[in-house]
Amino acid sequence: MLKRKEKSKLALVALLLGLTLASKAQEDTLRNIQTTVKGVYTFKVAEAKKLDYNPEVDPPKLNAPTLTYSIEEKAYTTKPEIIPAKPQGYNARENERMYGNYTKIGYGMYNTPLFETYFHNTRSKNIDYGIRYNFLSSEYLKTNQVFSDNTVLGHLTYNLTSASKINIHSGYERNRINWYGFNPDSAKFDIQTTKNIYNNFSIGSDFEKRGESKNDFSYAAGIEYYFLKDRYRNKENFFEAKGEVTKMVRQHLLTVPLSISYTTFGKDTTYNRLSIDLNPRYFLDYGRLTLNVGFNSILFHDSIDNKPFWYPYADFKIKIIENKLMGHLGVDGGVQQNTYSYFTKQNPFLDTVIELKHTINKVKVLGGLWGSINNKIAFGIDADFGNYLEMPFYLCDTTPLRKYIVVYDNIDILNVKATLQLQWAEKFKSTLEFSYHNYKPGDQLYYWNMPSLDAKLNLQYNYNNKFTARVTTYYIGERYGKNVEYRDPAKAAQNSESVKLPALVDVNILLEYRYNKMIGVFLNGSNLTNQAYRRWLNYPGYKLSVLGGVAFTF
User: Fold this and answer.
1) Structure pTM?
2) Contact partners, residue 63, CB within 8 Å, separation at least 6
């Protein structure tokens, strides 16, 4: 028999030999490992999933109302939600491919071609980049109802470290509209004399660095610039530099955002505006109770005046029933920096002479309740009351083209919004939103073109991630519009007779079928009730319209 010492030596030699062979085998194996990254981009809403917990519904957000009713006056809109893939890596089967890019091609009534494409680098550990191009146009030559949209957007995101990243983005938009509010029985216009074109170039960059621990500082900074020009020599430049610092102070979160912006606008004369915004927040979290306090402050220096503004901010939330019911109560206030870009997005049929003013929300009181009954039903109700100075109103002039002008008035607004979400089954869900608005203008008779009641019902069904059907119904209550008349060539405005616009129902349907992972078809129907309603006074929208096409992912 071997002695104990000899046995120990033999065991040591065997161990060393085994480690050597294992290391060699692992080295050879590593040479042959193939890593494949897999990610599938789908061009439609993901399948509804059954909730196995009681959701905490975010409260409905009520902002100062705008004239965007969310009813599409175009035959089709292209608003894909591009979510860059999060950097990650993992093994996958060799026969599985990655589908990250897509292209949509379609055609519809009123000579409406659609083309949209998106390319990106799919998934990468440290970098994400992509570019999207969209073209959509439509024309109803009988009434000069013509528009076209061209959009190019690009982005690049790079992870500098595990806690910091930088993003660069740029874009170009070209939007063509026609003033078609004239009466075709009494006036005739060449289509070239009724058009306006908005060209908008934008570029920006953002930087973010997160603290490595909860007690470290976190930083964010960025710059934004856009240049907007129309066909009639109106030009707007906007530049903004912004930053934010976040830090835990006595176990509660303190956030201090600061922004400095500069705006110029004009044609023959130029309007200049410099503003400095400081809006700190201190978030106190006590579990069932949270309190977010701070203030909104802004300093204006423009071509007309220099004014500082300061408004308190507070939002108190309480969990009334854990995971079932929450409530909140708060106070807010601030200043809306009205720009030409903002106005054209609300109402593209503007006159080419516009006056810019600030909209001041002197005080706004808000509160609400939201929660869930079970894992299938969630609800929310929210309300706010605010006093607004220099709120923009849109009135149509009496020139033959019926362009819209911007006038300002003080107004008190009460908003109440209720939301109900139902997850009927794993494949079927619905959302109902209902809003009530009470307006009390100062000099104006009504809050023109704005309804007191509006509602939205969205129904969605998804079968096996192959077939999707979505029906969206809008209801807009009665509202009033008005044509502005002038006393003299200097365009001193005087009141004219108001016109009641009847309530409307707009039903839209979207059907999508995926033949396989790479090919799908879609069909979109708008305004199925075939109403010739007027979203804006003198400007009827499209009646029934249908658009269909095919989509490819690759």
Assistant:
1) 0.79
2) none
Query: For residue 422, what are the β-bridge partners?
Result: 377, 430
In angstroms, the CA 92 to CA 94 distance is 6
Residue 70 CB neighbours (<10 A): 11
Mean pLDDT of 358-378: 92
User: What is the rounded average pLDDT for all residues in the chain?
Assistant: 82
pLDDT in tens, 189-209: 888 889 999 999 999 999 999
CA dihedral angle for residue 277, residue 278, residue 284, residue 290, rounded to 10 degrees: -20
Please provide the DSSP assignment of 309-321 as one string.
EEEEEEEEEEEEE
β pairing state of 493-494 and 479-486: antiparallel
Tell me which long-range contacts 252-256 makes (C-beta under 8 A, separation of at least 24). Answer: 252/282, 252/283, 252/284, 252/285, 253/282, 253/283, 253/285, 254/280, 254/281, 254/282, 254/283, 255/280, 255/281, 255/282, 255/283, 256/280
Q: Which helix (H) or strand (E) holds 84?
A: none
Quote the pLDDT of residue 498: 85
3-state secondary structure of 6: helix
Nearest by Cα to 59 from 329, 306, 311? 329
For residue 492, the tally of other CB atoms under 10 A from its CB is 8
Sign of CA pseudo-dihedral 193, 195, 197, 198: positive
Residues in the chain: 554
Structural domains in the chain plus CATH codes: 38-553 (2.40.170.20)
If one compares 83 and 128, the residue with the highest pLDDT of the two is 128
Identify which of 374, 470, 476 has the alpha carbon closest to the alpha carbon of residue 433.
476
* DSSP conformation class of 40: B
Q: Which residues does 293 contact at the CB level (< 8 Å), separation at least 6?
A: 281, 282, 284, 313, 314, 315
Per-residue pLDDT, averaged over 494-519, amounts to 88
Nearest to 260 by CA among 280, 281, 239, 282: 239
Q: ∠ CA 68-74-80 to the nearest 5 degrees? A: 80
> Mapped to the 3 state alphabet, what secondary structure does 63-81 carry?
CCCCCCCCCCCCCCCCCCC
User: Could you tell me where the beta strands, DSSP code E, fall in 398-443?
Assistant: 404-425, 428-441
Residues 6+ positions from 263 with CB-CB distance below 8 Å: 236, 237, 238, 239, 271, 272, 273, 275, 337, 339
* Residue 77 tokens, joined: 């809109």
DSSP 307: E
Percent of the chain beyond pLDDT 90?
Answer: 59
Phi, psi of 289 (to 5 degrees): -120, 135
> CB–CB of 198/175 below 8 Å?
yes
Tokens matching residue 154: 């690009």
